[in-house]
Amino acid sequence: MNNSKTPCIGICSTTSLGDSVCRGCKRYSFEVINWNSYDVESKKAVLSRIEKLICQILQNKLRIFSVPNLKLNLEKSNVPFNEELSPYCWLHNLLKKNHGQIDDLREFGAYVLPEFEKFTLEELSENIEKELLILCEAHFDRYYEVPQSSSVDFL
Q1: What is the model's pLDDT at position 148?
Q2: Where are the chain's structural domains?
């Protein structure tokens, strides 16, 4: 299941819950809504932003030692991934879709770094999602949020 048409992994919270950032793919709600009207460059820009944020967080907590093994097991598990993105994005999709079903992450060609081994895979996945959401929201606030004009009362 590679090269998906959208970064959607089937966990959309923008359309179902009204979130401003999708809990699944990390696109902003307006990107989810307008995705099909985006040109190739616009789509690449969105994917690049998401990829950088995911890699920034996952590489601090996890290591991939076998990309072929990760790919094979994602395909076996029917977890969507885009081969054009970093394998850390693939790993993120796996954690989002199947963290509760994984007994040993090494079977997927990855492992948890020693300083994070004290967490269960579920706890680690939840922490990763919280951090990603914070980064996505900060990025949105910095680059998309329309600043409120402040009114100053003069006496």
Answers
A1: 56
A2: 29-140
